[in-house]
Amino acid sequence: MTKASLCWFRDDLRLTDNPALASAVAHGRVLCLYVIDESDERRARGGASCWWLAQSLAALQADITAKGGKLLVVRGDPAELVPHIAAETGVDHIAWNRRYEGAAIALDKTLKEKLTGKGLRVESHNANLLNEPWDVTTKAGTPVKVFSPYWRAARLRGEPTAPRPAPKRIEALELPALLEAMMIDIEALGLEPTKPDWAGGLRAEWTPGEAGATSRLTTFLEGALGGYAEGRNRPDYLSTSKLSPHLRFGEIGPRQIWHATQLARESGQAAGQPADAEKFLTELGWREFSYHLLFHNPDLAKVNFNSRFDAFPWRDDDHALQAWQRGRTGYPMVDAGLRELWTTGWMHNRVRMIVASFLIKHLLIDWRRGEDWFWDTLVDADPANNAASWQWVAGSGADAAPYYRIFNPVSQGVKFDPDGVYVRRWVPEIAGLDDDTVHQPWLANAAQLDKTGITLGNTYPRPIVPLELGRERALAALATLKPA
Ligand SMILES: Cc1cc2nc3c(=O)[nH]c(=O)nc-3n(C[C@H](O)[C@H](O)[C@H](O)COP(=O)(O)OP(=O)(O)OC[C@H]3O[C@@H](n4cnc5c(N)ncnc54)[C@H](O)[C@@H]3O)c2cc1C
To answer: Distance (Å, rounded) from C-alpha 330 to C-alpha 410?
Structure first.
């Protein structure tokens, strides 16, 4: 064995504040590794995530090369590839940063035992959370089921440790020819869509990679953070950080965001009031809470957290599901959100809640079908945040929205998109309507429709379900559930 290390990258595609990489570099020469996981044991990434991954790996490869290192990208089952590559390179040390999905934990555990048994030193680190899910507990030492006490307990643990800088240099380990031959050209991975190429809107919107993440954070701290506490609910302008896909792929870590926010606040460089920064940090807390829930409930994306919902009378309605997916429900706020998602791979949080509530409550379609669609189309599709948020909206989750809360897409639109800027941007066929009807085109009179060239049911759909009927049907379905 040589004094050399394998640094296995997963959800941590960055050099800064990457403890596994720091440990590998401190150990000796390093081979950086990424495995495109093709095993059926773990949930496959959705289309938008694959697009992001291809860009992010290319950025990581360039960053590693610039430091003198080498990133080996291979495809297959990591359960076989990681021990094989360790053996071929003769490394005596392996480091990775932890993941928290049940299947990923199981894989890491098996690999740790196997590699340790072969005499390697195996290290796992925390790169992606402020607190490990098992470190925040109730006073009785059990998992926390409600956000506020969770976040109080997390805050009592003190400030997260300061992020560490990127290594100055990475000494690359020579690759045996056999491994060199396994190396995959990222561009040839086939992660980019071609037929059809639906990623034009994603390319226009995002810069995947560590540099893109850092630049998003700086822009946010100097701009939208001002007024964030209130403004974060407004989808009609850039009111949030849009850091979610960067966080999902670990191009930036929560400790970096935390300390940069505090530093900007103390130095007066951050826009806005202390309450804005506090609210922003609390949103990171929701992310932490989702991971806490996922760790303690590995089936969060499939199984109702609250088993009362197991008997819920969901409707099978593929026609309605498809209309929802394509943004053709006849409700502009819902349609705008789903079109924003389809075009850019992202949707504003307020609108995510509105469209999810509409699918679950007004259409009575199982939250898991919505979760699946988001999984496929979001660039930030996240095993913890997506599952926990869908369950939150359904009312089946931990600390969920009260089950009888049914978002009204019209009043939500009027409140959070008061000038109709957001719906006009994403549903251009109704842009000519005035502010009174742009959130409810069916109220426009014949003269208005005529003037704006709209034919309801033709150029824009009529409502797929009347709001009152949908609401009453949802309440009736919810009433069938046994009390908790
Ligand atoms: C139905 C539904 C599905 C969702 N699916 C995902 C998902 O797959 N991936 C994902 O990252 N977020 C998901 N969210 C949470 C939230 O909508 C996004 O994190 C947020 O919109 C990302 O935008 P931002 O980075 O500008 O957020 P900001 O407001 O700038 O917040 C900063 C960060 O805090 C975290 N955060 C913010 N809000 C939440 C929240 N409600 N729950 C958990 N973490 C939060 C995110 O990591 C976010 O990047 C979902 C919400 C809903 C209602």
So the answer is: 11
Q: Measured between alpha carbons, how far is residue 243 from residues 209, 247, 248, 322 in Å?
A: 11, 6, 9, 29
Q: Provide the domain count of the chain.
A: 3
> Both tokens of residue 276?
């804005």
Q: Is the pLDDT of residue 482 over 90?
A: no
* pLDDT tens-digit series, residues 166-222: 999 999 999 999 998 998 888 777 677 776 778 888 999 999 999 999 999 999 999
pLDDT digits (tens, 9 = 90+) for 330-344: 999 999 999 999 999
pLDDT of residue 484: 65
Alpha helices, DSSP H only, in 200-273? 200-205, 210-222, 228-231, 244-248, 254-266
Is 232 near ligand 1, meaning CB less than 6 Å away?
yes
CA 74 to CA 163: how far, in whole Å? 29
How many angstroms separate the CA atoms of 302 and 372, rounded? 10
pLDDT of residue 2: 65
Domain presence at residue 338: yes
Tell me the Cα Rg of the chain. 24
- Domain boundary, last residue among 239, 263, 296: 296
What ligand 1 atom has the least distance to the C-alpha of 348? 21
Handedness of CA 91, 97, 100, 101 (dihedral sign): negative
Whole-number pLDDT of residue 273:
87
Give me the catalytic one of 171, 192, 198, 314: 314
| Of 12, 10, 6, 7, residue with least CA distance to 210 | 12
| Sheet bearing 71-76, strands edge to edge | 71-76, 29-37, 2-9, 91-97, 121-125
Average pLDDT of the chain is: 95
Residue where a domain terminates, one of 77, 101, 127: 127
pLDDT confidence of residue 1: 61
Pocket flag, ligand 1, residue 372 (CB < 6 Å): no
Which of 129, 244, 294 most suits a substitution to test ligand 1, by most atoms within 8 Å of the C-beta? 244
At 242-268, the pLDDT tens digits run 999 999 999 999 999 999 999 988 888
* Ligand 1 lined by 378 (C-beta under 6 Å): yes
